[in-house]
User: Fold this.
Amino acid sequence: MTVTVTLPALGESVTEGTVTRWLKQIGEHVEADEPLLEVSTDKVDTEIPSPAAGVLLSIAVAEDETAEVGAELAFIGTADAVPEAPPAPPAAAPQAAPAPSASPAPAPVTPPPAVPVAPTPPPAPAPTAAPPVPAPVARVSPAPAVPAAPAAQESVLRGRTVPMTRIRRAIGDNLKKALLEQAQLTSTVEADVTRLMRLRNRAKDGFLAREGLKLSPMPFFVKAAAQALKAHPVVNARIDEGEGTITYFDTENVGIAVDTENGLMTPVIKAAGDLTVAGIARAVHDLADRARSGHLTPDDVSGATFTISNTGSRGALFDTVIVPPRQAAILGVGATVRRPGVVRSAGEEVIGIRDLVHLSLSYDHRLVDGADAARYLTTVKEILESAAFEGDLYPDAGT
Assistant:
């Protein structure tokens, strides 16, 4: 029996993938669900497992070639389809050794035979010489793990010309496509997150002891952004110009931009609007860790309805972030800085040292008007400044 290996669906809107490396060669044995090859898409790199145990008989798509989803990649010969010779090809044994063969050949191998069928003594690698008639039996799903790529050594890039990596090209193509297809604008507000930072400082030690995770400010921003999406669904939308429709989502799948050694990755927190700060913190930690270690799956980077870019994590005050394709908006979170600010206290305005942050919303003007963007940003600002997250930081508050 021959099993066809096909390219599986690798995430929303992904129609093709590039074979970057075959992990098995023709003639090698492979176990069921053992990684067979690596495939790169514009969203993530992943491994494709073998759908069955057997021998890799032939390869239809070579390394660096691109195939569409569903295309035939290779053929696996299972035990009942492969002769008994392939499992251990003895490459260095053309000597006159009396190898007792169990095959139907009637004569020994060493003496020059007069009328045997096999003209050459050494058993040549048979799999390549027997291309099977493929029976379309496909069962492939994306492997859950991707080996970490070599670290990009920025210190040695100075003065060099290097090939553009696939992920670098994919990032550039996606963002250029988004800019060309959308009418993008950016609005910015400043939020006073002093109370929020105080709450985090009070809760971080207990959170670390309970969850085993450091409590960063990011989960609070994700929570506020997701809550505001519930109140302003116009920002949580997708346009289909071909059909002339706009879809307003009833769930908040928030992509988080993660800076990795291989480039920008954007894993997705599914149903972020239904999670507590603690649940979001766990999701952020898990996704960011797997993004940097190269262990994201296609599902991890699919289905975002909105995105957050924490440009402040590297010190930027604010940024004009680019709206990803098939989304209406992206929130940029700048660096939280301490500086003098006006504080209203007991009816008086005084100057105090405050924690301030810029929030920038880039949006597609075909879907979102300036007033919509301002209303959304104002809601996010109010949620953050109220710092009403105490119930979210404890296990009994939900997931």
Observations:
- The first strand starts at residue 2 and ends at 6.
- The two ends are 47 Å apart (CA to CA).
- Residues 38 and 47 are 4 Å apart (CA to CA).
- Confidence is low (pLDDT under 50) at residues 82-88, 90-142, 144-152.
